[in-house]
Amino acid sequence: LVHFFQSDYTRDYLRHSGSLRYHPLSDYTDPDFIHQSQIASENPPIAGRPNKICFFPNKGADRAASFLQGRALRPDIEFVPIRDMTKKQVRKTLFDARLYIDFGHHPGKDRVPREAAIAGAILLLHAAGAATYFLDHPLPPEYLFTEEDITSGALHQKVETILENPTPHHANQRLYRDTILLERDRFDLEVRQFFFTGA
Predict the structure, then answer these.
(1) N or C: which end of the chain has fewer CB within 10 A?
(2) Helices then strands (H, E): number in the chain?
(3) Residue 2: phi, psi to the nearest 5?
(4) What is the mean predicted confidence (pLDDT) over 58-75?
(5) First-to-last C-alpha distance (Å) of the chain
(6) Quick one: which H or E segment has residue 78?
(7) Could you give the CA distance from residue 140 to residue 104 in angstroms, rounded to a whole number?
(8) For the segment 39-48, what is each residue's pLDDT rounded down to a tens digit?
(9) 3-class DSSP state for residue 79?
(10) pLDDT band per the 50, 70, 90 thresholds, residue 74
């Protein structure tokens, strides 16, 4: 039996489960996002974007609700849930956002955080599942948060700090964006390695 894994988190699970044959077979971010990210006129600099925070309400709904009902943030901050949107509307919304917060449990290299990152938004991820694996989400640890951070107000403070001066935080996440740009090449190599080299 051969297993294919999309994330390092899953690879670790297979290894600990006693699987004997497992190979990487990742995926890649929507080429429309990649293309737009390379066009300066369609990719506003982080400092020029409004204080817009996007999140996916179907992921970690209880944690998201706890955050939104917690301590008050500045009135100029707009929260935009990613739901009931076309693909084009999602792309437009993320390219206009300063921050994307993912409250989910990250069973793999989830799609929306990568789309938000390549759209130029700064990421904050719930420290669970694949989010805690650097190979899956190559972010400095300060951009991960716990449930305790939500209830204590630490996440609210982190959001305020990032929005106050987003440029260095955007620079700190460059490795993540660069990794996303190489996903298609990595996928092609993984397919070739397994199916055309007799792995």
Answers:
(1) N
(2) 10, 7
(3) -105, 130
(4) 87
(5) 13
(6) strand 78-81
(7) 18
(8) 999 999 999 9
(9) strand
(10) confident
